[in-house]
Fold these 4 entries.
Entry 1:
Amino acid sequence: MKPVLNFLGEEGPETRPDRSFFHVIPVPMETSVSYGPGTAAGPGAILEASQQLEAWDGESVPMDRGIHTTPAVGCSGSTEEILSRVESRVSRSLSMGAVPVLLGGEHTVTLGALRALKAREDQDFGIVQFDAHADLRETYQGDRFSHACVMRRALDDLDLPLFQIGVRALSYGEHELRRERNIPGLGPGAVHRGEIPDPLLPPGFPKNIYISFDVDGLDPSVIRATGTPVPGGIGWYDALMLLEKSIFGRQVKGFDVVELAPVPGDHASDFAAARLVYAVMGLIRRKSRPLV
Ligand SMILES: [Mn+2]
């Protein structure tokens, strides 16, 4: 196995875990792929592409309070075994006061982070999900822990509020579930037409959030290297605007960028994913409520 690169390379002012604001946790999990394969290589490709990022993001230096990159989480064994490893890693980062940043891997990895937060946090938190898919199926291909079920597990097993952005491919059952349970969200058509509610998140949505960013929520013109690309996604600047509206005045307890499935020759997708990770870090540093 290749040694894990630090996110952004060695030029950061601080990479020690106990002094770093962000902990980047690579999770090369790929067990429930339903269409195109390759998500196991996602975290490595993001770390590699991050070496090309500028520390200055145009507005700030998001790395100014440190980014520590942990070794990759072992992804052999059963889904439950992998998820419990993710949970304990995330829990360790939270106990050090850091913001965990998961690099997927398939979308199922999110569940490990959500379990860690749920176990540790005494305050409510909600999930802001960027995704082409609702991921609300009870089971998919016989698997309750498929990437197509991750947000159903968050709803039913962890009882977490959810806001969905960019969803444009879902089953009739998922459509019905969203209606029955009143799951709020913003479709990509509304974003395209500029119909952005203000505030974006509904009144009463928790002040603490976890952001789960499936890269297929973006349009394939931004990131094409993903297992299940769907046309008509969110553009780059709209994604940044929606992230900012989600983060402003809230506290981000953690986030993930998942489902990058690198394709040889398409380094534009890898770089866009790395840049997305760093953009979210910048928005957290500039726009979120300070940690108390
Ligand atoms: Mn997803």
Note: The mean pLDDT is 94.
Entry 2:
Amino acid sequence: MKKIVFFLLTCLVAVFLLGGCSAESGRVPVSKTVIDPTCLTEGYTEWTYSDGYVMRDNFTAKTDHDFVPFTEGTQPGLIRYVCRNCGLEKTEYVGEEISTEVTVDPLRPRPSFADGEVMICSMILENTTEDAVRAIRAAEANGAYGFMVYVSCLRKEDRTLEDLQQIMYCTDLPVLAIAYNVSLFGAQSLSFDDMADLLRLSVQAGAAAVDLQGFMWSDDTRASLTQYRAYWEAKGFDMSFASANPAEVCADPAVLEKQRAFTDEIHAMGAEVLLSVHASVQMNAGQIVALGKFMEAQGIDIAKIVLSGSSKDTVLEHLEACKVLSEELQCKFSVHGQSTLSRLMCPMFGSYIAFCVDEYTQVQTNIQIELDTMADLFEDGELKCDLEMLVDLFASPEMKGAR
Ligand SMILES: [Zn+2]
């Protein structure tokens, strides 16, 4: 009994001391801040004491996400929401449900991504296999010729052979698999080998093609361009593009050999390779053509070059390059800059891929052409657009929205 009384007394003293009233410790709270909870973090009260000690208590639970609809397109049956606090997205399907039933037929011949006249390609960035299947089928109904699926955007648990097969077999149109270090929730850190493995798995699952990034297995592509420019010039290549200091163009022969081995491997599996360069600089037509030829020499099926610049002058350089490349390259190419005008017109001058979005979302940055719009310009791969259509198009609210 005595022990218990002593214990209680000790507790009382302790509470008295911790209460901040003790002259002995000198610890007096000098400020109190109440932090409200959000959908990402709990709320709490923060006490700062005179000696600099900081303490938090009175924790409160996280709040629900505050979803607001932000779909700008007109696609029926689909609403996208984004949390106004944390940016989390969710997709809601209303009205007629798109089936996610998929029959995997391993005997189906693999479709080709590269053998058409033009590829009106819908970009698919979804977090789950089911959402990707729905998005592909919705875009197919809206006129897409093929799809670029960011397999790296899928949740980790959906990056399996079985899940990827659902995506590759939900359509008979060709799917190109992309594994980049972006996801719907910010950057991730896949190694080069992780990305290559994910692409191999996608091909195994039935993908028609893969996106090989120009900087795969390179530590520093810009340094390699400086170091090996003379090496390639001695072999007869026009390396004038190196003066523009583009990103993602590797010139290191050892790294290119590794990329070539990967390309050969994908070809041996029956799929195609698109080599992509996001140059992040402006280039003139001559430099773009030289780069296209350097990329073609890597043995790939499509050379994709994305350039900076949105002025009319840069668009003219892109169009000039497209005209020359369509005469001088054996492989397909895709060239465009960062403007609607360039994205819209380059396919009219021989650039193979018209990158489209079926539905504008925050992730897709609203810079690509809307699928309906691009599909309307072509009929069975033939351009059917005239000047009057173009004028109407640029006056339309959709194009103003896409700048
Ligand atoms: Zn939230």
Note: DSSP finds twelve helices and 19 strands in the chain.
Entry 3:
Amino acid sequence: MAPGEFVQPGNADFPWDKFDPVDYLDHNYTTMRDDDRQVLTFVRDFFVRISPALIDRPMRGIDVGTGPNLYPALAMLPFCAEVTLYEFSKSNVDWLATQHAANWPSWTTIWSDFWRVLCEESLYAGLDRADMGSELSSRTKVTWGNVFELDSERDGYYDIGTMFFGPESLSPQRSEFHSAIDRLLSVLRPEAPFAIGLMEHSAGYDVADNRFPATDIELSDVTDYLEGRASGLSSERVDPGDVPIRDGYTGMMVVCGLVAR
Ligand SMILES: C[S@@+](CC[C@H](N)C(=O)[O-])C[C@H]1O[C@@H](n2cnc3c(N)ncnc32)[C@H](O)[C@@H]1O
């Protein structure tokens, strides 16, 4: 390396174990934002649209980099006997494991609002019950793991998958953004449906006292990369509206599709 040459940091250079799930949850999900509602509705409608093609057997789902956000897992719930919440940060894994063991106390304060949006469709409403927190515990599994090490030989294939804020929110390096998408798709069986949520033109984000990275991307970066890797793509860009969640991004994006055969 030449003297003074800048080496861009990568995923491994950031303090993921210090990611504060409570601060992140408070800032992002305590009140449902209109952009999250639009993203969730888009994913719900995609899964409902393709549901006749989903084979009628208990499926395995995976949400990669769950953090404390349950809505991607909730969107997969009607199709899954089990959803793996796959997370790298030890603090996030601890938070998820504590919630899981206690039948999701955050259900009543936060996630029931997101679930109500899903229940506008009968596939979800048919699953609704008084004690959704314990239902969720029985259908989810919390697993520590690194997206870059996802491996179908070790992990098997999943039938449906999500990754939210997400492949672009783990590294400033474009190659790691691509690699995160590749690794997610690599553990999904051919033709498995997936949904990926992303931030547009993100400059990175603060959680409590720590700064985390982002890859600066827009929708075509995702759809172009998925060309040949997936079929039946549908996508949406959602404007941040009058109250952006923070500085340094220009919108949310969601891309759904089926893994290439
Ligand atoms: C911006 S947060 C998104 C959290 C959540 N999915 C959401 O929708 O709000 C990025 C997440 O990626 C996780 N993450 C970072 N590096 C990872 C890695 N190498 N493998 C898996 N997850 C990782 C972080 O711990 C964090 O939970």
Note: The radius of gyration is 17 Å.
Entry 4:
Amino acid sequence: MNTFLSRVLLTVGIAVTFNTSASESDGGIPYKWAPWKDPENPMILKMTDEKDVLFQRRDQSMGAKREPGLFYPNRYNFGPNWTAIPTFLGAPIAQTPEDLKAAKVDIAMFGMSIGDQVLPGGRFAAQQMRSLIDYMSYPPQGEDQFIGVDIGKLVMADYGNATANWMADNQVNLDEVHKIVSEILGTDAIPVGIGGTHIQSYGFMTALAEKYGPGEVAIVHVDAHYDAYKAGAGRFVHNGSFFKLAVDSGVIKGSDIYQVGLRGTTPGAYDLNWMRENKLNFHFQAEIEKYGWDAVLVKLLSEVKGRKVYLTFDMDGVDPAYAPGVGSQDPDGLTAGQAIQLVRALGIQNEIVAAEFNEYNPLLDDAHQTTGILMDRLIRSLLGGIQGRREGITDPMYYDPERLVHANQ
Ligand SMILES: [Mn+2]
């Protein structure tokens, strides 16, 4: 149906509904003045149908004809973001699964413009990550300075954004997240989601459950928050409740969840009991303080050893001293170094099947974009670990000997 026709029908539909609605009101605004909530109104906008412009995908045949493969938008081989049309890590662009397959892409990065945070701004994170004012963010190259592995050997692509609707109840964006993650999983590439807020993890989990079956993928969850709060805000799932719905609806098992960095004012006794009953593997900041980071890291790595891993990394898991630009800050937390070590170690030890870095709020970052640059380095460290594993490194605590001893020692 074309847009004009749907607009006409929408108008007619609303007009008809004004006269035929069986019930008049739910006690709030009368339905005749609130077509969006009349349960019998056939013209209620469904966010995924063509009446909603924010979900209409572009007709790709509008572009120039080209063979499937990567598209390099920039004139120069080399240069930081501000010299270029910005993409994630300066990577070339892929638009379709055929592009990913033709170029044998290893890492398909994509952005999310979802924006439901306590302090909103995550919707801007993907674009900010493409255009950090950071001398290092030139095209994907450069050795990981801990393990001496060149991440430029991975074939990377910027796969565009997975969500367009920034105004809606963010549940409606989850279909798009699911579709894009599924598209990428259908190739040999690893989906790496960048930006947005934590609700999107639900779309990752449903796509992974569809591909691998529930229970096959371990979820490593770095966060100050446990994110298994009950439904609320008129939603089944929001950025603090997605694990609860995922477990309750059978998308994952509670025992698939491995949490690191929990602290602050939640969970309460009821939810902590739910976490225990559902066998979540949690590592509170209390455990890190009591036993030390090294011990908890070793424990976590042994718990997930041998499993496929989906990493969902909330930037507020890191101490706000290192990551001030987040949607819901909590004092204390992982240091930047601990976070970098964790993602690198996971990349080496485990088969990473998906990853996602969220809750970065660039509006609250400092002038030097400290949080954004840390998120960039976390992504690079994960990729370093993944490439290290491909090159035969097996010890998650491996260090490049060249970087441990200098010539005069
Ligand atoms: Mn959080």
Note: The first strand starts at residue 107 and ends at 111.
